[in-house]
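Write out this protein's structure.
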Amino acid sequence: MRVLIIDDDPLTQRLIRETLSPDDFEIIEAENTEDSIMQALEKSPDLVLLDVVMPCMDGFACFNALREHLPSGRGVTLPVVMLTEMNNNTSIEYSFAMGATDFIHKPIDCSLLAHRLRFVMRAHRLTKALQISEERLRLSMRAAHQGFYDLDIRTGRAIVNEEYATMLGYDPATFEETRDSWLERLHPDDRKAVKKTCRAYLAGELPEYRIEYRLACANGTWKWILSVGNIVERDSSGAPLRMLGTHTDIDYLKQNEDRLNLLAKVFENSGEGIMLCDATNKIVQVNQSFTNITGYLSEEVIGKSPKLLSSGNHDVAFYDRMWCTINETGYWQGEIWDKRKNGEVFPMLLGISTVRGAYDKLTHYIAVFSDITEHKAAESKIEYLAHHDPLTNLPNRTLLRDRFDQAIARAARNHSLVALLFLDLDHFKQINDTLGHDMGDRLLQAIATRLVQCLRDIDTICRQGGDEFIIVLTDLLDMDRVVQITQKILFHLHEPFVINGLRISTSFSIGVCTYPTDGVNFLGLLNKADTAMYAAKKQGRNTFRFFSDEMNIASIERINLENGLRNAFEKGELSLHYQPQYAINGHQMLGAEALLRWEKSAGEWIAPNTFIPVAEEIGLIVPIGHWVLHEACRQNQRWHDNGATLTVTVNVSAVQFKQGNLVQSVRSALASSGLEPRYLELELTETTLMQNTEMVVEVMTELRKLGVKFAIDDFGSGYSSLNCLKLFIVDNLKIDASFINELSSGRAKDRSIVQAIIQLGQTLNIKVLAEGVETESQLKQLQQLGCDKVQGFYLNYPLSVEQFEREVLLLSKKQSAEK
C-alpha cells in the first residue's frame, strides 16, 4: 500500500515511516501543500495521512488543494485520514464534513497504526465497490425503465428511486410516494384488480405480488406499469411489515402488444390472401383469406411448398425471372395463374417480399395475393365494349379500323383487293317515328344478325352509329366478287323482318369503294364509300353504287356549299328579294313574298333550290328562318312608315316547326319591328302541315291569336290538299305553278283543275292566289275563272329592296293616295 504522509514535523514522519515500513507499506513524504500535490500527481498514493495543523497552510486547505489538482474523480475518491490533537472535536467534525475518510489522534499509537490504515483501505474499497454496484443497479433499472420501492406497510410511506419518479414525469428531488398517493394515481378501471391481487398475495394465495396496471403521469397521460413485490419483513406474529419491489415501465410493450394485436387482426381479416414462408420457402402461416381464395385449410399447407398452388400455365423461365428479381431487389409483383384445391385455375395479383433479420440474414418470405378473376372478367368486358357496339355487339369503328389496317397489309402482300361498303338503312327515321325507338333498336339487331349470317368469317361488319353499317371485305380476287357479295347483302336485307309478330320491309343504299383502286387510306376510302352511298340514295335507294371521280367532285362541291353557306350567314351574304303580289286586275299591288337569295360573290348567285335543302339538312334553316322573319317584318314596317300598306309573305319550312320555337320567333320579330301582325303572312306547304298535325295546329292557333295570316303553298300538288283545308284554318290558297303553266296548253282538263281550286276557295271563303303567271293568256284565263290574286314573272320579278322601292313602291303609294 502506498501512503502519502503530509506533515511538517520530521519526527512524526520518521515515526510513521519506521512503524509502517516493515509491514510492506510504501511511504511517500511531503512537508507542505505544494510538495504534497507534486508527490500525489507523480506517485498516485492509495491513502493520505494529513496533519491538520501545519504552518502557512493548514491541513484543511491542503485537503482542498489536493482535490482541485488531482485528476477528475481521483481527488474525491482518494481516502484521507486526518491527524489531529486529542479531544479536538471541532477539527474532527470539520474533517468529516469536508469528506475525510477517518481520523487518528496524536500522539499516534504505533501498535495499531498499520491495522487502522488497513481497515480504512478495506472499508474504502468496500464502499467504492458498493457505490459501483449501486450505480450499475441504477443504470440497469434506468435502462429497463424500472423503478424501485421500499414500502413500510404500517405507515404507508415508501422509499422510491429516481427512475420511478422520472418515468412518471415527476421531479425526483421533490417526489414523495405514499400508499394513498399511489392509489390516487391508479387508473379507476384497474383499482379493483389491484386490490384483489394484493389481498391474494398477503393471504398467501400467490407466490409473489405481480400485476399490470396504469398510473397517471404528471402530464395527465396514463402509463402501463408492471408491479412486482415481495414481503421482506414480518413481525413476531407473521404480519407483514415491509415490502420491496419494482415498478417496470411496460408502456412501450403494451403499445407493441396493441400493434401486434392489430397486425394479427389485419392479417386474419385482410381481404387479400397472405402466406408466410420461412427461408427454405416452406409455408409457416396463412390467413383466412388464403383459405377462402385457394380452398386449402391452414393445416393442409403448413410445412409444404407453395408449389402446390402451381397451375402449370407458366414455364420454368417465368419462375427463374421472378426469383431473380426477388433475390436482387427483395420484391416482385405481377399477375400469375394459380390453381385452387378443386383444380380450378384462376388469375391472381401477387406480391412477394423478403424479410431479413440480424446481419441482413434472410428469415422469411411474405406473399400477398388477391383473386382477380372478376377484375379480369370486367377488364375483358371493358375491352369488348371499347371495341364493340353495345346495341348490336358488332365491332365499332375503332375495331373496324384495326381490322381494315390488317386487311390492307395482307392485301398488299397477296396482291388482292379489299372492299369497303357503306350501308345506310332507307327511311329508318320513319320506322322509328311510327313504330317507336324500341322496335327500331330490335330491327337494327336483326339486321346485324342477318349481315353476320350472309358474310364470311374473314369479313368485318361495323355499326357506325344510327342506321349506318360499314363492311370490310377481304381477300378478294376481282371486282366481280365484290359485286356478287354486295348483291347478296341487298337480297338478304330486302327480305322482310318479323319482330314481335310484325313484318317490317327494309331496303338499303350501299356505297362501295376498293383498295387499291380508290385509295389506300382508311378515312379517305370511308368518305368515298359514303359519297357513293348518297349517290345510291339519289338513284332510287335499295341499290348500290361504286365510287367514281365524278362523285368525288360532287361531294367536294357539296362540302364547299355547306361551308360557304355557314360563312354566308355569318358574313351577311344572304338577302331578301320581294316579288309583288297583285289583285286579279294585275295593277293593284296587295303585298309581296319575301324570297331568300344568296350572293356568294359579286354577281355569283346561288339558286335557292340548291342551298335551302342543304340549310335544312345541316340545321342552319332555323337561325336563317329566324333572321328572315325579323328582316321581313323590319322592312315591311319601314315601308308602312313611308305610306305603303303591304302584307309580306314569309315561307316557313317543316324544320322550323320541328326544331325552332316558331311562336317565340314570330313574336320577337313583330315586337322588334313594331309591325302589326295582320300584315304578316306565313306560307306553309302541304307536306309541312301534314307531318305533325297536332303540333302544327297548336302553333297555328297561337299565331292566329296574334293576328298572323296563313297561306298554303303549292296547293293541289300533294295528296292531302282537301284534308289540309279540313284540319287547318288558312287565309289564302296558292295554286301550284305547274297547274298555271298547263293553262297555256288549251286542254279543258287543265283549266277545270284550276277552276275547281278557285271555286273551292270561294266556297270556303278563302282567297286564291295563282303563282307562276308568265303570260298574258294565263292572266286573262285566271280573270275569267274568278281568281283573287296573281304572282309571277309576267307581272314582276323578285326584286331587291332598292329595286322594289324604286320600281314598285312608288306605284303602290300612288294607288293608296288615289283611294
